[in-house]
Amino acid sequence: MITHSPPEQDFDEALAADEAPAEVSPGRGGWSDADLRAGLEQLEKHPPLAAAKRLLQLLRYLFEETVAGRGGQISQYSIAFDCFGIDPAAFDPNRSATVRVHLSRLRKILADHAIASGSLRITLPVGSHSLRFSERVTAKPGLPRQVLALIDFNGSGLDGEWMLLPNLLTEQLSDRVSRLQAFDVMGPFPRTLAGSDDADLTAVALKYGVACFVDGSVHRRGDLVDLRLRTIDGPTGTVTWTASETLPIKHLARENLVSELLERLAAGIGADFGAIDAHFSRLSRTKPEHALTIHEAVLLGRMYFFDYNPRSFPVAVRRLRQVVLECPDEALPKATLAMLLANAGHEGSWPELPPAAEIQSLADDAWRLDPMASWSILARGFACCFSGDLPEIRRLAQAVERDPDASGFSCCGLGVLLCLQNLDLPQGIRLIHQARRMSPYQPRALDVVEALVALRAGDLDATLAHLDCYRIAWGWAAPLIRGAVYALRGDVESAACEHRAVLAAYPDFGNVALEPGRMAWHADHLRFLLGIYHRVGIGGVPCGG
Hints:
The chain is α/β, with parallel strands linked by helices. It has helices at about 35-45, 45-50, 55-65, 75-85, 100-115, 165-180, 190-195, 200-210, 255-270, 275-285, 295-305, 310-325, 330-340, 355-370, 375-385, 390-400, 410-420, 425-440, 445-455, 460-470, 475-490, 490-505, 510, 525-535, and strands at about 1-5, 115, 120-125, 130-135, 145-150, 155, 185-190, 210-220, 225-235, 240-250.
């Protein structure tokens, strides 16, 4: 069967009252008391809420405060004292996550199930403590979602209770991949159904519309266990990705270690920039622009942030501009296009400034349609670079760092923005490190950002080490930073060579880099780098620093 799980990219932005101004409550939103209470009554019957006494308690408290017009006065403190009855002397929101966790869980339930009575929909928006009452929109066909099917893991060398291990790991991995919300997850299929030959899988893929299979094996060697995974393209039966882990068998009795292992493997398979994203993105790059499906256009845009291929940038922009017209109620294409356009100023072949108004409109639409999706939140953050609303980037980053359910992509994206906008380098690096711990499959920009921060700190060896991990042959950012290191070390010839590489990628860089509204980088960073070149006589643009 196809399973759906609540979105993982949830944000708890419930900051203490002295940390953020209270939001103006929308109150009843024009709904009658009878309609609101009928909606609440139906919502209370929903199983995830009916079985959770404290969540019901929180829902009822937020409901009464919002309906009474006091939604803007709700804070972590008022929830702790008035709703949960916590002793004021014992509550510190910076130490206790009780309120934040319960708000996060309630927000996730409301967003995922969108319970309504008649035409009423009740939600708890990100960044708010008051409920929102809105008209329920009739469901429309969404973006096509690819089907991912798991096959029961094979086991060998197992005996006794360990013989159940393959099935257990398959079920747990299926659950974690489902939470990523990138696919419809089917299975697990029994190995007898899939057959012993990979070619047999193509018949199953054709029958059930499976785009990709996940297969695995568990093999015991004495006190060690080898866990192997692979993804298989459904239509062709071709193996597209493999991974393996070896660990002591005693670790499998420790729930936290097994959970970390499965989260890491699930991210490698299905998270943003994971194995399946990469596979289908590569396929999309072999097709002519007019033949790209909606899903392939989105993937092409997303994967630009993994390898920054300049050839895919204009194709993705043109096709996504068509997609957002074809699918006006879908958040992901709008968010992806907003982020692409926000990076247009980094492409030397792009003739125009990033269209700030279009970026803002797309980001606003994506936020309205799906405010908990990581791409929607990052589109909002990138839009803030051009609108000048830098405090909003800080607010989003604080929410991500506090939220135990924040996705790795959310962490890395907001970490990058904190660093590139020179807002909070230590917090930005913390978020980047958090993203790397969650999944090794992250945008390559992290290496450049970490190199920039290391250079600003004066650690030239660390700067070059990060750039050595970048491994992308095109672009201006890496040679610009590497050349600055050479210039600081007195190797002017090598610095000049890197400067030529910058101009090869972006011929007009020296003239337009500091142009307002062009770069997502803060001008202080660019002045610092260009100033290093200027002091050794390279460039010709006096940028100081």
